[in-house]
Amino acid sequence: MSAPQESPQELFGLRLAHVGINGGTPEEASSLADSFAFLGLAKAETPVSFFAGSEVEVMKGSGRGERGHIGFAVDDIDAAERWFAGHGHAFLEDSRVRNPDGTTHLIYFAQDLGGFAVHLVQD
Length: 123
Prior knowledge:
alpha+beta, 2,3-Dihydroxybiphenyl 1,2-Dioxygenase, domain 1, eight-stranded mixed beta sheet, 38% strand
């Protein structure tokens, strides 16, 4: 992915949401999430992962990306998706997660970076 001329940070409020780590087994993921306690990040569990604060997600198995994933929050995911697609960046339609009202909550780019899947999430 090349750096665009316009700034997605300015256009859509693009910011780091969290880093996801493929944690192996649920027990390994729980232990790894606990390891972030020294930073003052409290652990919370979801059906597929543990979070250390909101900044680190440790998957209970292997999620997308060889090493994990990086989530970027945006203020308007539909506009951001159109803009990135218009600049030649494809998305994985099968990764789209919808809100109860049918709007998009999360979608992954088709291209991984350095072994990490990358997704947008509506904040």
